[in-house]
C-alpha cells in the first residue's frame, strides 16, 4: 500500500476555499470515510509545513462564536503542486509487502498449515466485504462513501483472488520452497 | 436489516446430495440449508457443482441420492404436477442470461408468470408494470429483450422472477454477463427487493464482490459444501 500524502490531501481540501484545522480534519474524514481518521495534531503539523514551504498561507482568524481559529488557504504554488501531484502516476506496486503473503510464506517455511490460515483469512475478508457492501448499498449512501467502499472492496477482492489461487497452488508451492 | 428467521427450521434444505452427469460426479454428498428470508451465497470455482446444486434444490433435476425438503415437502416424493406448481408459485429463477422470451415485450415477459397462474391479462400487465418500476426499467416495458441492454434485461428478468411473490429466488450468476456497474445495480435491486419482501435468495456466484451482498457464504469444493470458518 502506497502511503497517502497528507500534504496533498490537505491542499486538495483547501482548493475549495480557506479553512481551519478542525474543519479540514472533519472534511477529510467525510471525504475518505474508510480511511484512517486524521489526527488533529497531524493536520496542524502538516499545515505548518505547507506554510513553511510556501504552499499555503495563514488567511486570518475565524472565531464563529467559539474559540479563535487560524484559517489557512492554498497559495498559487500550492495549487500548482496539487495539480502536479494529482496528475502524476503512482508507481504500480513496485514491491510486494503484504502481511497475508508474508504469513503464507512463513507458514510454508515453518511447516505450518497455510491452507487453514487462508480459509480463516478468507472468512474475515468476506465479513469485511459484507460490511462494506451494506454501507455502499444503503439507500442514500453519498458518493464519497460509495467510492471509498468500492476501493476497499476491489482491493479485498484482489487479495481473495490471490488467496484462492494460492490455496490451489499450495501443494506445488510447498514442494518448491522445500527444495529451495 | 436482515429478515432472516433464525428460530424456525430451514425453509429449504438439501441433504447428502449426489448427482452425476454421465461418469462425472458433480455433487458428492452436498448438504445446505436456506432459512426463510435469508440471502445465501454459494461460491466455488468453475466445475465445483454450483449450478447442479441449484438445479437439485429448485426441483429442476432430481438428485441421484439425498433429499431436498422445501417447507416440509420432500421434492423427490412429489409428482411432477406438484413440482411444476411449486416452481411457478413458490420459486423464482434468474440465470446469467437468456431467460426472457425474445418475442415478447419486457412487460409481457414479466406478466407471463401471473397469467400462467390464472391472472387476467390487464391485471397481470398492471402488476408487471409496477415490478418493472421497482427495478428502474418501466420505461423499457414495451421493448423486446433484444432491444434492452444486458443490465436492463437482467433487471426485467428479476422482475419476472419476483412478480409471483415467491418465497425463494434462485439466482445463478445473475451478474455474470454484466460489467461491474450494471452488475451492482442488479444486485442492489435484488437484495433490496428480497429484503423488503422477506424472500430467501440462493445466490450462485464465483465473484466475492457479488457474494458480499449475501448474509452468509458456503463454498463448494469438489461437490461438497464447506461452511466458512467464523473469523477469529
UniProtKB/TrEMBL annotation, chain B:
Gene3D superfamilies: P-loop containing nucleotide triphosphate hydrolases
Domain ABC transporter: from-to ranges: 12-232
Matching InterPro entries: AAA+_ATPase, ABC_transporter-like_ATP-bd, ABC_transporter-like_CS, ABC_transpr_LolD-like, P-loop_NTPase
Record-linked Pfam families: ABC_tran (PF00005)
One GO location term (cellular component): plasma membrane
Keywords annotated in UniProt: ATP-binding, Nucleotide-binding
Protein name: ABC transporter ATP-binding protein
Organism: Streptomyces fungicidicus
Amino acid at each position: 500500500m502506497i502511503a497517502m500524502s497528507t500534504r496533498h490531501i490537505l491542499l486538495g481540501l483547501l482548493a475549495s476555499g480557506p479553512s481551519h484545522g478542525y474543519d479540514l480534519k472533519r472534511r477529510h474524514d467525510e471525504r475518505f470515510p474508510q480511511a484512517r481518521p486524521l489526527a488533529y495534531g497531524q493536520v496542524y503539523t502538516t499545515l505548518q509545513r505547507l506554510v513553511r514551504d510556501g504552499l499555503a498561507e495563514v488567511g486570518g482568524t475565524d472565531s464563529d462564536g467559539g474559540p479563535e481559529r487560524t484559517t489557512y488557504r492554498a497559495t498559487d504554488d500550492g495549487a500548482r503542486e496539487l495539480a502536479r501531484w494529482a496528475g502524476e502516476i503512482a508507481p504500480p506496486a513496485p514491491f510486494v509487502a503484504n502481511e497475508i503473503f508474508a504469513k503464507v510464506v512463513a507458514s510454508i517455511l515453518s511447516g505450518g498449515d497455510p491452507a487453514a490460515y487462508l480459509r480463516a483469512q478468507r472468512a474475515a475478508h468476506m465479513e469485511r466485504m459484507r460490511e462494506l457492501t451494506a454501507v455502499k448499498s444503503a439507500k442514500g449512501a453519498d458518493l464519497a462513501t460509495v467510492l471509498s467502499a468500492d476501493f476497499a472492496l476491489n482491493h479485498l477482492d484482489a487479495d481473495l483472488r490471490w488467496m484462492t489461487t494460492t490455496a490451489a497452488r499450495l501443494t506445488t508451492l510447498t514442494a518448491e520452497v522445500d527444495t529451495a | 436489516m436482515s429478515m432472516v428467521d433464525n428460530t424456525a427450521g430451514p425453509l429449504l434444505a438439501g441433504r447428502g446430495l449426489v448427482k452425476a452427469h454421465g461418469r462425472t460426479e458433480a455433487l458428492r454428498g452436498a448438504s445446505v440449508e436456506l432459512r426463510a428470508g435469508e440471502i445465501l451465497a454459494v461460491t466455488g470455482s468453475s466445475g465445483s457443482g454450483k449450478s447442479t446444486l441449484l438445479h437439485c434444490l429448485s426441483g429442476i433435476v432430481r438428485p441421484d441420492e439425498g433429499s431436498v425438503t422445501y417447507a416440509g415437502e420432500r421434492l423427490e416424493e412429489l409428482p411432477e404436477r406438484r413440482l411444476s406448481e411449486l416452481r411457478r408459485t413458490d420459486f423464482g429463477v434468474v440465470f446469467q442470461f437468456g431467460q426472457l422470451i425474445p418475442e415478447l415485450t419486457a412487460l409481457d415477459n414479466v406478466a407471463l408468470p401471473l397469467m400462467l397462474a390464472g391472472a387476467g391479462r390487464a391485471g397481470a400487465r398492471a402488476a408487471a408494470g409496477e415490478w418493472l418500476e421497482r427495478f428502474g426499467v418501466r420505461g423499457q416495458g414495451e421493448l423486446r429483450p433484444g432491444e434492452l441492454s444486458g443490465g436492463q434485461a437482467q433487471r426485467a428478468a428479476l422482475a419476472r422472477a419476483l412478480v409471483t411473490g415467491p418465497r425463494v429466488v434462485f439466482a445463478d450468476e445473475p451478474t455474470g454477463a454484466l460489467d461491474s456497474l450494471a452488475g451492482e445495480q442488479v444486485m442492489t435491486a435484488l437484495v433490496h427487493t428480497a429484503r423488503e419482501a422477506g424472500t430467501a435468495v440462493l445466490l450462485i456466484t464465483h465473484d466475492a464482490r457479488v457474494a458480499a451482498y449475501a448474509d452468509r457464504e458456503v463454498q463448494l469444493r469438489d461437490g461438497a459444501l464447506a461452511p466458512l470458518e467464523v473469523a477469529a
